[in-house]
Amino acid sequence: MKILVAVKRVVDYAVKIRVKPDKSGVETNNVKMSMNPFCEIALEEALRIKESGHASEVIAVSIGPPQCVETLRTGLAMGADRAIHITTDVGATLYPLSVAKLLKALVEIEKPRLLILGKQAIDDDCNQTGQMVAGLLKWPQGTFTSKVILDKEKQVATVEREVDGGLETLCLDLPAVITTDLRLNQPRYATLPNIMKAKSKVIKKVTPQELNVVIKSDLELLQVTEPPKRKAGVILSSVDELIDRLKNEAHVL
After folding, report:
1. Are the C-beta atoms of 161 and 171 separated by less than 8 Å?
2. Which contiguous run of DSSP H or E holds residue 44?
3. Which one is predicted more confidently, 108 or 21?
4. Where are the domains of the chain?
5. What backbone torsions phi and psi does residue 165 show, to the nearest 5 degrees?
6. CA neighbours within 13 Å on the CB side: how many for 243?
7. Looking at beta carbons, which pairs linking 148-156 to residues 24 or more positions away fall under 8 Å?
8. What is the pLDDT of residue 160?
9. What is the C-alpha to C-alpha distance for residues 248 and 33, in angstroms, rounded to an integer?
């Protein structure tokens, strides 16, 4: 069985985000970039499935500018067998529907039995791509999964997902789409020998034109602004003063 894992290059989670002076987006020049943490979890789960004998190959795919190759080499160093880079122009904005269409086209070529994605990316927090690609492929989907069990003989995947009322268990016929939650696993660190080996591995490049997908914007970005700064707290002298302020200033009573 072949597993395809989508990985995204994002601003590192430890970096303090800065908005551009013209408010057209987030500053990314000279900023540390890394693999989206949810994508790391997705790749780790695919590697564990392969190590358990339920998969024969793990393929990492990333969509974006040339710098995405660094993210794919991280995936190869973690243990992915192959990597595919769907190239786009520098500065091109990719929205979830365009990414879903590109992944659908690639799935039709590679024919994996399982497509695993992080449930969301920490840069836009859209939480849409997995659901959209499942809809386009007409595959069953298990989102926000915190546990995955594969039955190779029956060709089904049993997943647990967290919902408001507790845990929900789903049984998915393969092929299927799975999106991963933080509690699914703890991603491994790439070892130095594997990092060195990954530098020499060939990464296949594919263009949207070769996949017969037209990238177009479904949304118009008007402005990016920082959240308002939190006001300083006030020390009150009595409960009566607190109640008075809640009633007359905050209007919550």
Report:
1. no
2. helix 37-51
3. 108
4. 2-248
5. -90, 0
6. 3
7. 148/45, 148/49, 148/178, 148/184, 150/49, 150/52, 150/54, 152/1, 152/53, 152/54, 155/113
8. 92
9. 47
Backbone Cα Rg of the chain: 21
- Quick: pLDDT tens for 84-142: 999 987 667 788 999 999 999 999 999 999 999 999 998 888 899 999 999 999 999 99
**What pLDDT digit, counting tens, does each position of 209-250 carry?**
999 988 887 778 888 888 888 888 888 889 989 998 888 888
Give residue 25's region: left, alpha or beta (phi > 0; psi -120 to 50). Answer: left
Token digits of residue 202: 């060939």
CATH fold for domain 2-248: Rossmann fold (3.40.50)
Q: In which band, very low, low, confident or very high, does the pLDDT at 71 lie, cut at 50, 70 and 90? A: very high
pTM for the structure as a whole: 0.84
Q: What angle do CA 229, 231, 233 make, to 5 degrees?
A: 145
Question: Would you say 218 and 212 are in contact if contact means Cβ atoms under 8 Å apart?
Answer: no
Given a contact cutoff of 8 angstroms between Cβ atoms, the answer to whether 83 and 73 are in contact is yes
In the chain, the amino acid numbered 163 is V
Question: Smallest Cα–Cα separation from 128: which of 179, 61, 72?
Answer: 179
